[in-house]
Amino acid sequence: MKKLMICALLLGALSAKAQDITGSWLGSIPVSGINLRLVFNISSSADSTYSATFDSPDQKAFNINCGKTYRVKDSVFIDIPIIKGSYKGLWNGKDGIIGIFKQNAAAPLSISRITAEQKAALGASEKVRPQTPQPPFNYYTEDVEYDNAAKTLHYGATFTRPNGAGKFPAVIIISGSGTQDRNGSMMNGHKPYWVLADYLTKNGIAVLRVDDRGAGKSSVGPDINNKTTLDFSYDVETSLNYLETRMDVDKKHIGLIGHSEGGEIAPMVAARRKDVNFIVLWAGPGVSGAKVLAKQQIAAIKLAGLNDDALAAYAVLNQHILDTIAFAPSVSVLDTMISGYFTQWKAQQTPEVLKAALVNGNNILGKDILSIYNSFYTNAWLHFFVTYDPAPTLSKVKCPVLALNGAKDKQVDPEQNLSAIKAALTKGGNKDFQVIEVPNLNHLFQDANTGYWTEYESIDETVSPAVMKIISDWIKLHTK
After folding, report:
1. Domain extent at residue 376
2. What is the pTM of this model?
3. Which string of b and e fits 404-422 if b means at least 16 CB within 10 Å?
């Protein structure tokens, strides 16, 4: 999953001279071994109030609208509702701000003023990947916009279909977690949803790929801080309703392709709507978020070099706490439960394990244990993710299902999740499904060496042609 998870890296200040906070400010933060640059663009109006936008150049996310932005003396505050985050800092009066970035957890972040030329260079550094589609296209393409029924959300999307008259089978691509544009732009030039849409359209299948809330032409909508995966599933229903208005779409053959979190959303929609003809789960979870996250975290900690004994001990502690979140009636009760279990866990460990796991008082792995898990309770999206079990919904899906995972996926473990998807579909009596573990592929379905997220950007391939052929052939078989 690709949620914009922020750790910490301090940068020295640049030498620009100014006496206001307006302008662009850059910081750089390591996330799971990948350096993500963050940019705040602050402007002021005639009445001296401030507004801001937020960029993540390495994820190709630009001009994300921020919320309340203000300065009181040397204190700066920026709210970022779309990623459920914020930034608070102390301005040195010139070219540097030292502060705290919050998104799920708090982390120190220093930002420095950059020039307009430096900001432009950040957006111009995108690598051209060999699979990125290039015009002229040998199919019809149209940028479209539409609203939900309540007119509270506006969506921007691109629709592609084969040339010529007629009605074509169609799919909606549902993105993974985090705010992404319609192409799934990420990791310095990779655009996996565009690459897949191009391949499918060339093979006779129409595709709608949609900007997430707050990206591209799609609006943020109301109360974004309290929205969950379930809320986002209704965005997909709006897109489904739109497709069914088109005269060039075969309404009897409309399906959903969900990547990662989108692989949870697709079954939600299919279980509610009989007009979903088929779904493709592209590295979609089959177990609770607590179990998915626990596997992810162990993979990350192993990559960081924790020894096997400490890793095994931490895995037991971590899984127990993540599972507990679903049953805690409040964050204060959760804290009490965590503290009690942590005390018991420490008493059972050897001094060597405690030392390797950096256990000191209430700290583990260098962090206060309560601060590690509080956000999983207080953040609406995270709480839903950790506590939601997709199996009951999967068991209600009666349309054909194709579930795919890369054998080297370190984010949604193939063995853990594909077996659970198969079990849920079987339990529900689904008679038409296929579960495939594709050799050598990572979470993005790139041919990979290790499968770790640290190599996503270094791989030129965006999506394996072999897996796109599997998807295309399976859809064509089910839309005859």
Report:
1. 289-386
2. 0.79
3. bbbebbbbbbbebbbebbb
